[in-house]
Specification:
Helix content is 35%, strand content 23%. The protein has ten helices and 13 strands. A hairpin with a 4-residue loop joins strand 2 and strand 3. Helix 5 runs antiparallel to helix 8, helix 7 packs across helix 8 and helix 8 packs across helix 9. The longest helix is centred in the C-terminal third of the chain and has 25 residues. The mean pLDDT is 95. Bound molecules: zinc ion.
């Protein structure tokens, strides 16, 4: 049995055929060209999928469905993208439009949700049935898997993990509130805090690391300089771990997953991030030693997470589409 996985992004659409073990058999990329109507883009995706099946010499009868991951607010049960800022889509009837070209069941979910499902079924969480996946990128996104099923909330509008307040009246967040986890634990927030620390301490080794230019600061700056013992950098990292830790503790207290899986560029820091994070979380989650410990680990599917995650919607765990 095989399924199609489709990872729709603002610049490109990555599609592939994936087997039951989550292995990609064949894949291809096409340009999104989002200046066009969504229907034209879906038509291209239909042609892309048919070409993939031909290339892999897999008859359509052996393909059981299409799973789609897409940025934005999505109504999974109806197969509709309500709104996607990245794609400039509004009320896009993606599932029924794609079925004009590929006569298979279609499931669609938010890109962070499908990454959560993919990591749980085939990646870092494959030993587990209950996980929380958190991506630390431009923002903080994620997904919740409960008993091997994606939890999306009513009309798929829940699980906005990054918009949980961890500091009342804190830093402004893109959502309009203040003090959200996203405003402290995203790569964007880490870069902001790194720059602030540098401006406060002109002798910090971070200045040398970025060649004297604040514009060259990225998510690695504070971590790399902290490793060399720079005090200002160590303080930035210490605070970052605490902010992330507060958020992770809250997720654990609410969901008590078997694992929290972290994704995003900051995770390249590996144990340097994970070790202090685990210590903070162990000391601060509810129940202490009397409750099962939650593993904290990093995502393993890498660049294919979106594609494998999308496909995994059709391999059990995705929200049923009411078409
Ligand atoms: Zn927010």
């Amino acid at each position: 049995m095989y399924v199609f996985g489709v990872d729709i992004g603002g610049t490109g659409v990555k599609s592939g055929i994936v087997d039951e073990q989550g292995k990609i058999v064949v894949k291809s990329s096409i340009k999104t060209d989002r200046s066009r109507d969504y229907k034209a883009i879906i038509k291209d995706i239909g042609a892309q999928l048919i070409a993939l099946a031909e290339e892999a010499k897999i008859p359509m009868s052996e393909l059981t469905g299409v799973g789609i991951g897409c940025p934005g607010a999505i109504d999974s049960a109806r197969g509709i993208v309500d709104y996607s800022c990245n794609l400039c889509w509004k009320n896009a009837n993606v599932a029924s439009e794609l079925r004009k070209y590929v006569d298979l069941p279609v499931k669609i979910s938010n890109d962070a949700n499908v990454a959560a499902l993919g990591e749980t079924k085939f990646g870092a969480g494959k030993a587990y049935s209950d996980t929380v996946f958190v991506t630390l990128g431009t923002g903080v996104g994620g997904g919740v898997i409960i008993e091997n099923k994606l939890f999306e909330g009513y009309r798929s509008k829940g699980a906005e993990l990054g918009h949980m307040v961890i500091v009342k009246g804190g830093e402004p967040c893109a959502c309009g509130r203040r003090g959200c986890m996203e405003a402290y634990a995203s790569a964007t927030a880490l870069i902001r805090d790194t720059k602030r620390a540098m401006e406060k301490d002109k002798t910090s080794a971070m200045w040398d690391f970025v060649g004297g230019s604040l514009d060259a600061v990225d998510g690695r700056t504070s971590f790399e300089c902290a490793k060399k013992g720079d005090k200002a950098a160590m303080e930035v990292v210490e605070n970052y771990v605490k902010y992330l830790g507060e958020g992770v503790c809250n997720f654990i207290n609410i969901f008590r997953p078997q694992a929290v899986i972290l994704g995003g560029g900051v995770c390249a820091q590996g144990e340097y991030l994970l070790k202090p994070l685990r210590e903070f979380v162990k000391a601060n989650t509810y129940g202490g030693d009397t409750v099962p410990e939650t593993e904290i680990t990093v995502a393993t599917l890498g660049n294919d997470a979106g594609l494998i995650g999308a496909a995994s919607l059709m391999l059990g765990g995705g929200v049923e589409t009411l078409l």
